[in-house]
Amino acid sequence: MNAKRKPDVRPANPRFSSGPCAKRPGWSVSGLDSAFVGRSHRHKDGKARLKEVIERTRAQLSIPDGHLIGIVPGSDTGAMEMALWSLLGARGVDVLSWENFGDTWAKDIRDHLKLDDVRVLDAPYGELPDLSAVDFGRDVVFTWNGTTSGVCVPDGDWIAADRDGLTLCDATSAVFAMDLAWDKLDVTTWSWQKVMGGEGAHGMIVLSPGAVERLESYTPPWPLPKVFRLTQGGKINAEVFEGITINTPSMLCVEDALDSLKWVESIGGAKGMMARTDANYAVLEAWVEGSDWAGFLARDPASRSHTSVCLRITDPWLDGQPDGFKAGVGKRLAALLDGEGAAYDIASYRSAPSGLRIWAGATVEVADLEALLPWLDWAWAALKAEGGNDG
User: Fold this and answer.
1) Beta carbons of 1 and 385 less than 8 angstroms apart
2) Are 116 and 141 in contact (CB under 8 A)?
3) CA-based radius of gyration for the chain
4) Is-contact 61 176, C-beta < 8 A?
5) Confidence category of residue 387, pLDDT binned at 50, 70, 90
6) Residues 6 or more apart whose Cβ sits within 8 Å of residue 339
7) Contact 249, 35 (CB under 8 A)
8) What are 11-32's pLDDT values in tens digits?
9) Is 349 helix (H, G, I), strand (E, B) or coil?
10) Per residue in 305-318, pLDDT tens?
């Protein structure tokens, strides 16, 4: 077949990576000129900026006053590992796994913490486990939005309000884009580099009163590294939740987080962020509905992510191509688009089925997604014209 003619218009910002994600519209490094760099983060001005991140986060996300919010090392991964190693072991654990990160938490709990009473409720990429099978008499570990599969939990209704166990939620690509049920989440973690469009390396952790009670009443049988320790003398270390971090933070990243949070406020807070995300997703949804070669990896719209939108190739032509070609088709498409400056970093995650993954969070502009779509069609036509005989 003949390849389509290249589109005339490229996205003004072709950054559709699922992490680190696009910076906010209008972002410039000059916005960080007043960063508290070259100074101690223990100085009153440094502590004040860290505390401001916490306070602005609480206000924009409407996090209950009884919940503690801390800035911790290691991005979302560090925050989630801190929670797993500090809190688990007091009772049995249910782990939900339907993509890479849920699988990672399951392996950590089973193979590294070596807990005996662990149930893994799993599902293949594109689907959710049976949420009705979760036992809330146990601790429950899950991702709110599976960044690598494009599948999210539909809401918080499935979580028991009268649970005896704790819920530990990796919400890194959901916070600021999806309406989280804070009253049903005992531990929630995320990083600035996702929906906020901030920088990596720092994580956020939110603890409910129930999580604090567990920390103060239960001591895990394994040693905890310093960067995981949330208690001192058997009591919660309140300083961590007042802007006095466990280890040295990057004040440049802190300034960037503040810049992002101020922008969030300017567009209507979390509700404004959700509206922008939903508008972006609607652009992709309309295109997929009319596409003859691409579909959503997540079949059920109720559990389909509006941030990390994962696409599979549905064109029957692909079925007749060599296995090597099929396995690398997402990377080939992404490379074509990258080479044209039309889209960066949109191949599916390395452990996911081959396809594309397009970030549609609030820092992405609708106009850029609209400009991307003709390029997706061009890339697929070009790949088909090339053929799979070299696969």
Assistant:
1) yes
2) no
3) 22
4) yes
5) confident
6) none
7) no
8) 999 999 999 999 999 999 999 9
9) coil
10) 999 999 999 999 99
Query: CA 270, 271, 277, 280 torsion: positive or negative?
Result: negative
**H or E element at residue 93:** strand 93-97
Entry field: residues in the chain: 391
- Reported as half-sphere exposure (CB side, CA atoms, 13 A), residue 89 has a value of 16
CATH of domain 33-266: 3.40.640.10
What are the sequence ranges of the domains in the chain? Answer: 33-266, 269-386
Say which residue the tokens 């401001």 belong to. 52
CB atoms inside a 10 Å sphere around CB 1? 9
Closest CA to 303 of 35, 91, 123: 123
The closest of 106, 105, 84 to 215, measured between CA atoms, is: 84
What's the CA gap between 201 and 192, in Å, rounded?
9
**In contact, 178 and 150? CB cutoff 8 Å:** no
* 269-386 carries CATH number 3.90.1150.10: yes
